[in-house]
Write a structure and sequence with these properties.
By secondary structure, this protein is an alpha+beta fold. The protein folds into two domains: about 35-115, no CATH class; about 120-275, no CATH class. It has five helices and 16 strands. It has helices spanning about 15-30, 40-45, 145, 170, 255-265, and strands at about 50-55, 60-65, 80-95, 100-105, 115-120, 120-125, 125-130, 150-155, 160, 180-190, 200-210, 210-220, 225-235, 240-250, 265-270, 270-275. The chain starts with 13 loop residues before the first helix and ends with a strand.
Length: about 280
C-alpha cells in the first residue's frame, strides 16, 4: 500500500489559524497556575501581603495570606511575620459580556466574599472579617515593632476599583470612579515587649479613590496613644505606601511606657515620631 500526500489543495484559511490560536490561548489561560501570578501581589504591596502556598489555578484554588516586609540586604521578601488560615476561590466568566464573578470562602468572613470584575472595573461587595491582630505586623511601623496581639475586625462598604482598560471608550463607558470605605477596629491590644496590658484600642479608617487609598489612625482607648495618616498611592512618581504619625502616653502611664515609646520612633518634644 502506498501513501500519497496531495499538496494541490489550497492552504487552510487564515480564519482557521486565528481560531486555533484563540483556542490555544483559552486553554493556557484556563489552566494558568495561581503560582504564576502570586508574585505580582507581593510586588504591588511591597511584600506587605503575599499568597502563601497557593494551590490550583487563577480560576479555582486555595491559598493563605502572609504578611511580611522587604529584605533590604538580600532583596525579595523576608519570611512571613504572620499567616492566616487558608481561603478558597472559584471564578466563572461570561465571554459575551467579558465579565467574571469570583467567590471567596474564608472562615474569617462574615459571609462569602463576592467580587465582580472585568477589564474596566472591579466591584467588591460589602463584608466583614475578623482576624488576629498580629497580621498588622506586615504593615510596618508601629505594628512591626509592637508585635501586636489582640482582636482585629474590619468592615467595608461596596468597593469600586477602576480597571486598566477603563480609559478606552469601548471598555470605559459608564464606569464610576474608584470608591469605598474600609474601617478597621483593633481591641484589647497587647505587646510582648510591654508590661502594660492592655495598651489600648485603635481605629484605622481608609478611603479609596482613583489616585489610591489614604487612611487615618486614631486611639479609642488605653494608655498608649497613637495617631497618624497614611497613603497608598498609584500616581506616577509617588507610587507606594507612606505613613507619618506620632505616639505618646497618657500622663499616668508615661513612666511605664517610656521604653516602648523609644522603640517606636524618635522623640520630638512630648511625642515620638512614627514614619515609614
Amino acid at each position: 500500500m502506498k501513501l500519497v500526500l496531495d499538496f494541490t489543495h489550497p492552504k487552510l484559511p487564515k480564519l482557521f489559524w486565528a481560531a486555533l490560536v484563540f483556542a490555544c490561548l483559552v486553554v493556557i489561560v484556563r489552566q494558568m497556575p495561581i503560582s504564576w501570578v502570586s508574585g505580582s501581589l507581593a510586588s504591588q504591596t511591597g511584600c506587605r501581603v503575599m499568597l502563601q502556598q497557593p494551590i490550583g489555578t487563577i480560576w479555582q484554588g486555595s491559598a493563605a495570606l502572609a504578611f511580611s516586609e522587604p529584605n533590604a540586604t538580600e532583596g525579595g521578601c523576608r519570611d512571613p511575620m504572620s499567616v492566616t488560615e487558608r481561603f478558597h476561590w472559584s471564578t466563572s466568566c461570561k465571554l459575551l459580556s467579558m465579565t467574571c464573578n469570583t467567590e471567596l470562602q474564608f472562615a474569617a468572613f462574615e459571609q462569602a466574599q463576592l467580587i465582580s470584575w472585568s477589564l474596566s472595573k472591579t466591584q467588591i461587595a460589602a463584608n466583614e472579617i475578623k482576624l488576629p491582630a498580629n497580621v498588622l505586623e506586615g504593615l510596618g511601623n508601629p505594628w512591626s515593632t509592637l508585635r501586636p496581639r489582640g482582636e482585629l475586625g474590619a468592615r467595608w462598604t461596596d468597593i469600586n476599583l477602576v480597571g486598566l482598560m477603563a480609559n478606552l471608550p469601548v471598555f470605559g463607558a459608564g464606569n464610576t470612579p474608584s470608591s469605598g470605605v474600609i474601617r478597621i477596629i483593633i481591641s484589647n491590644l497587647t505587646s510582648p515587649i510591654s508590661p502594660v496590658k492592655p495598651l489600648g484600642g485603635y481605629e484605622i479608617s481608609a478611603n479609596i479613590a482613583d489616585t489610591g487609598m489614604n487612611w487615618t489612625l486614631s486611639t479609642t482607648s488605653g494608655p498608649l496613644l497613637l495617631k497618624g495618616q497614611g497613603e497608598l498611592s498609584n500616581k506616577v512618581g509617588s507610587k507606594g505606601m507612606q505613613f507619618s504619625g506620632e505616639a505618646s502616653a497618657s500622663p499616668e502611664s508615661q513612666e511605664s511606657l517610656i521604653g516602648l515609646l523609644s522603640l517606636l520612633g524618635k522623640k520630638e518634644g512630648d511625642t515620638y515620631r512614627l514614619k515609614f
